[in-house]
Structures are given as structure tokens and as C-alpha cells.
Amino acid sequence: MTSKFHLIDYIIFIAYAILILGVGLWVSRDKKGHQKKCRRLLFSQ
Question: 25, 19 in Cβ contact below 8 A?
Fold first, then answer.
């Protein structure tokens, strides 16, 4: 059994990668006026 990638496979893979990257950037964006503080991130338990 031979498996070859076709054009549709590449298109789906690239679309999926762009979607995951876009969601990751959208979720990790900072809110306006919000500052991240290292101390708060390290000691927030």
C-alpha cells in the first residue's frame, strides 16, 4: 500500500496549522492597559 500526499492533503494541513496558530495568538494577546508581572505569574497559587 502506497500513500502519497495530494494537493488537498497539503491544503488541509496548511489550513489547520494557520487555524491553530491564529487561535493561539488570539488567546495569548494582551488586553489593552494590562501588564504582565513576573512575580504575579510565579507566585500565583
Answer: no
